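User: Here's a chain of 255 residues. Predict its fold as tokens.
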Amino acid sequence: MTATLDKDTDTETQAGAIPSFEVTIKVRRFIPENSDEPYWEQHTLTMYGTDRVLDALHKIKWETDGTLTFRRSCAHGICGSDAIRINGRNRLACKTLLKDLNPDKGPIIVEPIKGLPVVKDLIVDMEPFFASYREIMPFLITSGNQPSKERIQSAEQRERFDDTTKCILCAACTSSCPVFWTDGQYFGPAAIVNAHRFIFDSRDEGATQRLEILNDKEGVWRCRTTFNCTEACPRGIEVTKAIQEVKRAMIRRAF
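Assistant: Prediction complete.
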């Protein structure tokens, strides 16, 4: 049996149009060439249930205020460049649906991630974050000559560090850490997670070096196990668990 549509039926209904709603976005602005102080700016937009916070920021920038500045690239949760604070929590703007933020209960608060210097609006200086990342030597360390065949690894060996290979370097975990906010020398969760990825890689020979680096007073021992980092990770990495495993590796190495 073939279904037919009444010719008088509304075109949008035929297309299964998604209903629109109004949402207020409250953005923390900072324009250094204009003022040394940040300020808040509100925009009321007409959006749809499938729209994300990133779509709202695009609408503001493209249609309302072209001076609004933020980072974004892939828009699919892979590049990690659009990590910001949304309603007090670190999230990726491209993965956060407006409808999931209860927009009918008040404005959606958008601000830059904490613990890193704000350059402009929602953009922070990521250099301190990447400096810590580089320090833990995030690459495979081996000895001997160039291999003549692939370095074989079993599924079980890969599974040992598989979780921490998911990191996209968005800084959501690091910038959610209270220790990182107050201690500019702390490596931060993301650096430790990426150290974990190689420390437990059966093909790598640089675990001792990395453990020595992270055994510093600003290394893993500064972690207070608040689980903020785990909750903030958009890829679902068990960040706190990885940090504890690095701590245990240090203790085993010492004894």
